[in-house]
């Protein structure tokens, strides 16, 4: 299997994007597949969750502006099969500096290519910032697929249309004509509330097989784990959160093995209160 690059993205904040990036990466690695997690968010939350520290060669920012080869920034985590490249606040400067480069949309793709060609990793997972700026568009240009977490709440799909629009622009421009979607992931599911059940039901009805069958529960344990710089698989390995991410990893890997992805990105129903 060639290295697959997955962007986990949603320009809407607070939907479990970083939580999913960290814990899905950990669950895939636990299943025996080498994973590299790229922290593309200047806040560096994915880096801190994995205990990654910026090396003497710098953070992802150094690679983005051509100061260091991407391969030199790869850090081994304490988890078997899981590696990472950390981010720090300097990465925010890439929004300006990369924008000045010729062919700036493809900068991340170019600097990532040697790592991808090395064959060391089965998956490169990118935790994208909650915006539609230069870092996000670079991630979508570099990715094979995008996985979109959606919170189980009223107006759950608010803003999805903008992200889908950017995906289509990147495909149509030729920057990444084969960009596909891994699927939509329902997060922060609270089985005690009617609204969560209604949102999941309606999203599945509209988008059918695009939506992962796995759903991530709202969990205090999931929220607590980053404060201890741990994944949920370490912090509460037998809890509902860890179980959900292992189920997601299994479904994700099954889709990858079967070559299931979605070129036609889903459109939000025009008359819907999801």
Could you describe the 3D structure shown?
- There is one protein chain.
- The chain is of the alpha/beta class and 274 residues long.
- It has one domain: 3-Layer(aba) Sandwich (Rossmann fold), CATH 3.40.50.300.
- Helix content is 38%, strand content 16%.
- It has an 8-stranded mixed sheet, sandwiched between helices.
- β3 and β4 form a beta hairpin.
- α1 crosses α11.
- The N and C termini lie far apart (37 Å).
- The mean pLDDT is 91.
For the biggest sheet, the summary is: 8 strands, mixed
- Domains (count): 1
CATH class: Alpha Beta
- Radius of gyration based on Cα positions: 17 Å
| Annotated CATH homologous superfamily | P-loop containing nucleotide triphosphate hydrolases
Number of strand segments: 8
In round numbers, the mean pLDDT is 91
Coarse structural class: alpha/beta
| CATH architecture descriptor name | 3-Layer(aba) Sandwich
């Amino acid at each position: 299997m060639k290295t697959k690059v997955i962007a986990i993205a949603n320009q809407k904040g607070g939907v479990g994007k970083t939580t999913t990036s960290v814990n899905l990466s950990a669950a895939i690695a636990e299943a025996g597949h080498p994973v590299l997690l790229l922290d593309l968010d200047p806040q560096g939350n994915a880096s801190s969750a994995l205990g990654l520290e910026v090396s003497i060669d710098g953070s992802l920012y150094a690679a983005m502006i051509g100061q260091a080869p991407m391969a030199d920034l790869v850090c081994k985590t304490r988890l078997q099969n899981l590696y990472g490249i950390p981010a720090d606040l300097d990465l925010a400067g890439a929004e300006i500096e990369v924008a000045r480069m010729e062919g700036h949309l493809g900068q991340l793709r170019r600097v990532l290519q040697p790592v991808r060609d090395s064959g060391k990793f089965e998956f490169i997972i990118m935790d994208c910032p909650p915006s539609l700026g230069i870092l996000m568009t670079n991630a979508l240009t570099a990715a094979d697929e995008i996985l979109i977490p959606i919170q189980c709440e009223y107006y759950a799909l608010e803003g999805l249309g903008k992200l889908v629009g950017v995906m289509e622009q990147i495909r149509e421009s030729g920057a990444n004509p084969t960009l596909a979607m891994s699927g939509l992931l329902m997060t922060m599911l609270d089985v005690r509330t009617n609204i969560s059940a209604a949102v999941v039901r309606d999203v599945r009805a509209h988008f059918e097989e695009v939506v992962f069958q796995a759903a991530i529960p709202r969990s205090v344990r999931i929220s607590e784990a980053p404060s201890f710089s741990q994944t949920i698989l370490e912090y509460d390995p037998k809890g509902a959160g860890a179980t959900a991410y292992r189920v997601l990893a299994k479904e994700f890997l099954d889709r990858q093995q079967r070559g299931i992805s979605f070129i036609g990105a889903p459109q939000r129903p025009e008359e819907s209160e999801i």
